[in-house]
Specification:
Helix 1 crosses helix 3 and helix 3 packs antiparallel against helix 4. The protein is built from four helices and no strands. Helix content is 76%, strand content 0%. With 71 residues, it is mostly helical.
Length: 71
Amino acid sequence: MENQAEKRARMLVEQWLVAHPERVRNRRRKPDDFLNWKLAAIRSVRDGNPYDVENILSWLATQAEGAAMED
């Protein structure tokens, strides 16, 4: 069962993804990669500074996009 922090983090990640459809495009094409990215993002938001969600998710997206360029 999800606790409140987990639910809040999941909601924030989903909102960010809707607001930034151009980000992590490379992950969105591969369901497993996208799920892994979302789970990492949820953990990072849950464990990070609640006032820094935008920067946390932007940084994770940049890391994912950069890693895809190496493929």
